[in-house]
Design brief:
There is one protein chain. The chain is an alpha/beta fold and 240 residues long. It has a domain of 166 residues: 3-Layer(aba) Sandwich (Rossmann fold). The chain contains eight helices and ten strands. The strands form two sheets. A six-stranded mixed β-sheet has the order 6-7-8-3-9-10, with helices on both faces. A four-stranded antiparallel β-sheet has the order 2-1-4-5, with helices on one face. Strand 7, helix 6 and strand 8 form a beta-alpha-beta unit. Helix 4 packs across helix 5 and helix 5 runs parallel beside helix 6. It is globular, with a radius of gyration of 18 Å. It starts with a strand and ends in a 5-residue tail after the last helix. The relative contact order is 0.19.
Length: 240
C-alpha cells in the first residue's frame, strides 16, 4: 500500500537547512498495524505528514496504492487525503459546542444529508459510542473524546489510518482502551494503521515497530507477541 524510496525532506530557514528525513525507504502492506517510534526531533512527525499527503518530500519517491504522489499539486493531494487517509490527533480537535455525532459528521458536511448522519452514527457504533452520540465533548471522558476522534477519522471509510500520539493525553486505562479499539479495527476490518508515538509500551500493541533517529530509520522490527488490549476496550477505560 505504501512504498517510500530514498525519501528526504529538507526545510530551509533563512540560510539554514534542516534535514528532517534522510534517504528513508519503507514499505507497508495493506492491513498492517505498525508503530513509528522516535524521540522529539527524530523525524517521525515529518514522515507522518508525508505519508498522509500533508507534505511532499524534497527528494525520493512515495507511492500510495501504486500512485506516485511526490509531485502532485495541492488540490490532488487534498483529494487523496479526503478519499484514502484518516487522521487521529493527540488533542482530539473536537468542536466543543457540537455533539459527538455532529463532530463525526464534519468531514461529510457538504452534500450528504441524512446519509451523512447515518454514516456518522455507524462510525460511532464502530468505536462503541453510539449511546453517547448526543453528548458534547465536555460531557465525555478523555478516552471517549478520543474515540469520537477515531470515529470522525473513520466516517469517510479510509484505507489508511494515521494516529499521531493517540494516547498522549490519556491515563493508562484509557490508553489501553484506545489501543484495543485500533487493534479491533485493524483485525476485523483490515484497516491499515500507523501509530506515531514515543512510547514503547504503546508501540508494543502493534505488529511492527519502525524506529527513527535524526531523520533516518535505525531499526525495523516485527513484534512477535503484540500486547492485546481488546479486552480493555470491551471493559471500558475505567475497567468496570
Amino acid at each position: 500500500m505504501i512504498k517510500l524510496e530514498n525519501v528526504s525532506k529538507t526545510y530551509r530557514m533563512g540560510s539554514v537547512e534542516v534535514r528532517a528525513l534522510q534517504d528513508v525507504s519503507l514499505a507497508v502492506e495493506q492491513g498492517e498495524m505498525m508503530a513509528l517510534v522516535g524521540r522529539s526531533g527524530s523525524g517521525k512527525s515529518t514522515m507522518m505528514n508525508i505519508l498522509g499527503c500533508l507534505d511532499i518530500p524534497t527528494a525520493g519517491s512515495y507511492l500510495l496504492d501504486g500512485e506516485e504522489v511526490t509531485h502532485l499539486k495541492d488540490d490532488r493531494l487534498a483529494e487523496i487525503r479526503n478519499r484514502k487517509v484518516g487522521f487521529v490527533f493527540q488533542t482530539y480537535n473536537l468542536l466543543p459546542r457540537l455533539t459527538a455525532i455532529a463532530n463525526v459528521e464534519l468531514p461529510l458536511l457538504y452534500g450528504n444529508g441524512r446519509q451523512g448522519r447515518k454514516r456518522s452514527m455507524a462510525a460511532l457504533d464502530r468505536v462503541g459510542l453510539a449511546h453517547r452520540a448526543r453528548h458534547r465533548p465536555v460531557e465525555l471522558s478523555g478516552g471517549e473524546q478520543q474515540r469520537v476522534g477515531i470515529a470522525r477519522a473513520l466516517v469517510k471509510q479510509p484505507a489508511l489510518l494515521l494516529a499521531d500520539e493517540p494516547t498522549g493525553n490519556l491515563d493508562s486505562g484509557a490508553s489501553a482502551s484506545i489501543m484495543g479499539t485500533l487493534q479491533r479495527l485493524n483485525r476485523d476490518e483490515g484497516i491499515t494503521i500507523i501509530v506515531v508515538t514515543h512510547e514503547r509500551d504503546i508501540a508494543a500493541h502493534t505488529r511492527r515497530i519502525v524506529t527513527l533517529s535524526d531523520g533516518a530509520i535505525i531499526t525495523d522490527e516485527p513484534v512477535l507477541s503484540p500486547l492485546d488490549a481488546t479486552e480493555a476496550e470491551r471493559l471500558g477505560e475505567d475497567g468496570s
